[in-house]
Amino acid sequence: MVGDAGLVMDPVTGMGIADAFRDAELLTEAVVAGLGSGTLLDTSLARYQRQRDESALPMYEFTTELAAFRPLGVEQRLLFNALAGKPAEVDRFLAMLTGAIPAADFFSPRHLFHLLGLRGMMKAALAQRRRAA
């Protein structure tokens, strides 16, 4: 499977098959472009790798955090508390976990601001600053 060959991720988020379908489509487009349109195959495959990595990275980072089974950090507590009592946002969160919406969209600053509010965003930024120090 193309997805499994591209990256290995803990199955806690169940993204394997979604990654495999995404990566198979991207790779097919790259091979067709590299063999049929005059674009060099190496160039097309390098573009595929960049697209795959950019698409996979946000979920990979989130999955790595979940799979560590460490106590929840400030950011995770803020997120899960913000989801409580908001069925539409829980649906969006679950859609992100299954790959129906990109993790980068769910975790975009705009969506997080909508979900957490100004106070929550400030708490998350302070936690990140403390962790980096």
SSE arrangement, N to C: HHHHHHH
Rg is 18 Å
The residue-averaged pLDDT reads 86
What is the helix tally?
7
Shape: elongated
What structural class do you assign from the helix and strand content?
A: mainly alpha
Q: Mind summarizing the main beta sheet?
A: none
User: In percent, how much strand structure appears in the residues?
Assistant: under 5%
Helix content: over 70%
The termini sit apart by 40 Å
Task: Summarize the model shown.
The protein has 133 residues and is mainly alpha-helical.
What does this structure look like?
By secondary structure, the chain is mainly alpha-helical. The chain contains seven helices and no strands. It is elongated and about 50 Å long. The model has no long low-confidence stretch (mean pLDDT 86).
How do the strands and helices of this protein lay out in sequence?
Blueprint: H1 2-6, H2 16-36, H3 41-67, H4 74-83, H5 87-98, H6 103-106, H7 109-132
Helix pairs in contact: 2-3, 4-7
Task: Throw out a few tags for this protein.
about 0% strand; 2 domains; about 130 residues; mainly alpha
